[in-house]
From TrEMBL:
<keyword id="KW-0460">Magnesium</keyword>
<protein>
    <recommendedName>
        <fullName>tRNA threonylcarbamoyladenosine biosynthesis protein TsaE</fullName>
    </recommendedName>
</protein>
<dbReference type="GO" id="GO:0046872">
    <property type="term" value="F:metal ion binding"/>
</dbReference>
<dbReference type="Pfam" id="PF02367">
    <property type="entry name" value="TsaE"/>
</dbReference>
<keyword id="KW-0479">Metal-binding</keyword>
<dbReference type="GO" id="GO:0002949">
    <property type="term" value="P:tRNA threonylcarbamoyladenosine modification"/>
</dbReference>
<keyword id="KW-0547">Nucleotide-binding</keyword>
<keyword id="KW-0819">tRNA processing</keyword>
<keyword id="KW-0963">Cytoplasm</keyword>
<dbReference type="GO" id="GO:0005737">
    <property type="term" value="C:cytoplasm"/>
</dbReference>
<comment type="similarity">
    <text>Belongs to the TsaE family.</text>
</comment>
<keyword id="KW-0067">ATP-binding</keyword>
<dbReference type="GO" id="GO:0005524">
    <property type="term" value="F:ATP binding"/>
</dbReference>
<dbReference type="InterPro" id="IPR027417">
    <property type="entry name" value="P-loop_NTPase"/>
</dbReference>
<dbReference type="InterPro" id="IPR003442">
    <property type="entry name" value="T6A_TsaE"/>
</dbReference>
Length: 162
């Protein structure tokens, strides 16, 4: 089952991310796909707020991986990856993408396609259509049923907020 959400502006994307951050738990992996300027980093910033982060979250385009401690629970961390600049799938292993797949970590991966052979099935894929001034359409897909109840809860909250 797919879930979709329309965002009219950056503020709505940040709010979506913040609400999403409230339902995440250690071990979650989110793959963010979309064109340049689609809102992947804005969504990540909202998720960080939802997780209680006060640090500024930026896309780790040149560092590949950025790690943040959350304030929601002890030892829970957010690892934000941007794989846009990787050229070969083998580089995924070299920079240690799989090392972030831990039970005390929420992992956000921008541009995940190059890493698809390394990604577990239990993840949330978020595809974002639109860029620039266009409305964004967020499509949420998952294979493992562990996401069903949480996304039902998320979309119930989002519906109530509209």
């Amino acid at each position: 089952m797919d879930y979709t959400f329309k965002s009219q502006n950056k503020e709505a994307t940040l709010k979506l991310g913040q609400s999403l951050g409230h339902i995440l738990q250690g071990g979650d992996i989110l793959c963010l796909e979309g064109d340049l300027g689609a809102g992947k980093t804005a969504l990540a910033q909202g998720i960080a707020v939802g997780l209680g982060l006060t640090a500024a979250v930026t896309s780790p385009t040149f560092t590949f991986i950025q790690e943040y401690a959350t304030s929601l629970q002890d030892n829970l961390r957010l690892v934000h990856m941007d794989l846009y600049r990787l050229q070969h799938p083998e580089e995924v292993e070299v920079i240690g993408v799989e090392d972030a797949f831990q039970t005390d970590t929420i992992c956000l991966i921008e541009w995940p396609k190059i890493a698809e052979d390394y990604l577990p099935e239990d993840r949330l894929d978020i595809h974002i259509q639109g860029s620039g001034e266009d409305t964004r359409i967020f499509t949420f897909r998952f294979q493992e049923e562990s996401w069903q109840e949480r996304l039902d809860r998320l979309f119930s909250i989002l519906k109530d907020d509209h």
